[in-house]
Hints:
Number of strands: 9
Bound molecules: pantoate
Number of domains: 2
CATH topology of the largest domain: Rossmann fold
Helix content: 25-40%
CATH class of the largest domain: Alpha Beta
Amino acid sequence: MKLINSIDEIKKIKKENTTIGFVPTMGYLHEGHVSLIKRAREENDMVITSIFVNPTQFGPNEDFEKYPRDEKRDLQKCEENGCDIVFLPQKEEMYPNDFLTYVEVEELGKSLCGKSRPTHFRGVTTVLTKLFNIIKPDKAYFGQKDAQQLIIVKKMVEDLNMDVEIIGCPIVREKDGLAISSRNTYLSPEERKDALLLNKSLILAKDLIENGEKNISTIRSEMEKTILLGKNNTIDYIDFVDIEKLNPVSEIQDKVLIAIAVETGKTRLIDNMVVEL
Ligand code: PAF
């Protein structure tokens, strides 16, 4: 496995007739990332993973500085799971002092997490545009856990005619149902118990819908009660939206994305479920 830091060097990797599967990450790799790397390995000639804690997607009072990092362990996981190249760009090269250009998918980035993280998705789409231009992957792999991110990235690729196929992969959960996230590492044992209530509330919503409940206020209120059983939990949002435009739905119809964000202690957690009738 090769490590590359320089943009010029990785730009030379793409060859005709060799497909590249790309897994963009911010490091601190977990089983969710591993599932993306494995899928990329199955579907491509070459697998490239990037590790870059992208400053432009963090707000001024967010956890950029303290975002967990463990490069040695990350490289081991990449190697064990069949990565050919790990790209570790330098912040100064990605964002030189005279950097001025941002890519924004309007509207889609304003709802759900965009309400409390107004510049987050602009940072994500900007860094991904750069990474796609630099690496020129055939396919790029994203987890469904960040459902809004996945929808926004697909829209950006469509709108800007980018030559990359975006592949969404299922959420990976711990045995007890907690959606795996690098931020889970911030949770105390007690907070972790409270964090389990996110998935429990989604399962409850699914059961209610499957048993015929169509009223969103009723379902939301049951979910709220479940989540707030955890005394460390504060709800940011519980939203019911369509899976393309992320517009709120007024009643449960054929397919709905239920997306939630909760502060558990000081840790912001997200989870979601697509429920189909
Ligand atoms: O999902 C993430 O880890 C990040 O948002 C991504 C896609 C690597 C962009 O920095």
